[in-house]
Specification:
The protein is α+β, with helices and mostly antiparallel strands. The protein has a domain at 48-112. The protein contains 4 helices and 3 strands, in the order H-H-H-H-E-E-E. A 3-stranded antiparallel β-sheet has the order 1-2-3, with helices on one face. A hairpin with a 2-residue loop joins strand 1 (79-83) and strand 2. Helix 2 runs antiparallel to helix 3 (62-69). The N and C termini lie far apart (98 Å).
């Protein structure tokens, strides 16, 4: 009888533990997804900044080059700044949850002549 009483008291313990752990696992999963999305945005911004710097160095339109190098989802809201042969591109990382604040991600690149010496 005493053994049955102890077993009956512990019957719902697994359910209570599961209810406590599942929200933490969901939050951890969403955080991992958000970090991956921010990383993708950072890599995309770096690629676009290199394209803009290359275009600026060659005398082409750096803003058009940066937007062409970005994935379509980043093109409309991208901000491109150039000073001489340096380009900076800022995009907003996609959000895993819509109530999160915007996460701006930026990257810069500079392209100049080999060795840092001007041509001529």
């Amino acid at each position: 009888m005493a053994g049955e009483q102890v077993r009956r008291d512990e019957r719902g313990q697994v359910s209570v533990s599961l209810i406590a752990v599942v929200p933490a696992l969901i939050v951890a999963g969403l955080a991992a997804i958000q970090f991956a999305l921010a990383g993708h945005a950072a890599l995309s911004a770096a690629h676009a900044a290199r394209a803009a710097a290359r275009a600026s160095y060659l005398g082409a339109d750096p803003t058009a080059a940066a937007r062409a190098a970005l994935p379509p989802s980043f093109r409309a809201a991208a901000r491109v700044r150039t000073i001489d042969d340096r380009a900076e591109v800022e995009v907003e990382a996609p959000l895993a949850l819509p109530f999160l604040p915007p996460i701006p991600v930026s990257a810069g690149a500079e392209l100049g002549p080999a060795g840092g010496e001007p041509d001529g």
